[in-house]
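Inputs:
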Amino acid sequence: MSADIALAVEGLQAWYGESHVLHGVDFHVRRGEVVTLLGRNGAGRTTVLRAILGLTGQRKGSVRIGGVEAIRRPTYRIAHLGVGYCPEERAIFSSLSAEENLLLPPRVSRSDAGMSIEAIYAMFPNLAERRHSPGTRLSGGEQQMLAVARILRTGARLLLLDEISEGLAPIIVQALARMIIALKEQGYTIVMVEQNFRFAAPLADRFYVVEHGRVVTEIGASELEEKTPMLNELLGV
Amino acid sequence: MILVFGIPLQVLLTQLLLGLVNGAFYAMLSLGLAIIFGLLNVINFAHGALFMMGAFAAWMGLEYLGISYWAMLVIAPLLIGLFGILIERTLLRWLYRLDHLYGLLLTFGITLILEGLFRAYYGVSGQPYAAPALLSGATNLGFMVLPNYRAWVVVASLVVCFATWYLIERTRMGSYLRAGTERPDMVEAFGVNMPRMVMLTYGFGVALAALAGVLAAPVMQITPLMGSNLIITVFAVVVIGGMGSIMGAILTGLLLGIIEGLTRVFYPELSATMVFIIMAVVLLLRPAGLFGREK
């Protein structure tokens, strides 16, 4: 079974300084699956992603990526297990051009070359046009595409995407949804944190609801309809 | 004789060159300070002391081991850069999460220790160091006499400054540094070994200071306090140029050296104060500095 699991998180606890944010998170993602973490603001979903990468303070528990324990690795060595991270605030660098932003993340996989620059520019023609502009001069949608595109280049097969549809025009959100479907077809494993349930609902295979720093329930895509009232209550929508 | 505003042209040009030489040192030192502050968030007060160690290394190399100026131009930055790495690994790295003030205090303490050690052994009187034979003497350009060594200092430091600029602004390694200055956590999340990069960056900034020290050895008095005298002006240069711009640090350094030199011609009493007057004006009009960005 473990060969099939891209990411296994068990009893993950994390702190920011003195404050205890995650109280034992358990979930797993199979290879090629799209999994969405749902929850209210402040429930700890972003922290789950950051804790997987070691970007929080102290952490405890177990994070196995492709079967390798990552909990005691320094952050820069976790990426080399084949993880790509797109943070909520996108973190496009203003002192780098769009293309430098795209080329910044080093390759993290020896076996997998990742997407070529040409393939990325074919997927996101806007980025090709604006390659010489400073990264933060791009529109919000372009910056979001850049933030995702730059981790596709590295050969990472496990993508952690935090709120990629947030604050974007509907047409761009649709383009991102098509991109997620295309990536899934190419066999990427994706963990999304999403506030926008309508965006995530048709894309994900499974959902985990995070509350007070714990996973409280798991919902498969097929049970989505019958569990929607319960979800609405949990998410407070 | 040609007069410019009642000053002989030759006097003017000589002071201009002296100003440019000082400006070259300001540029190299403020460049190192800007790179270190950008990535480490540490105001490296020890920069002056490390500059002094570069000059002393050149002198000691010749005095005790007979190592030439040219060899020390390479050896001193390497050795003192390694010493900087030792400081970073053992002391500085514990302070990155804290307020700037702690880094400033620590490096100030290091400065006092280093200067104190050199003072205990060599006193405060200057050690003489002759320019290498190849660059001694002067060239008569017709309109002025150009001391060869000073011309070399200006050219060498310009080359080093612009090579550094190129490395940071135009190469892949430089893009890590620029990105790391903005969001070190994200660069590390992408898989770049940031602790090692921080260490090498500090070592590089320190090596630049040491190189400036070797270049300065034949034109300045080599004393334990030579760095402290210079570093106060260099901090003013950094404030005027603004943190965060490599080209800004280089240009401001050169410009202020020249302004200082010209002030010496027209109103010598003000020459030591001029930089600080400019600093006050810049702080009033553009608090982030001429090339700095507001954060």
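DSSP finds eleven helices and four strands in chain B. Flag for discussion at group meeting.
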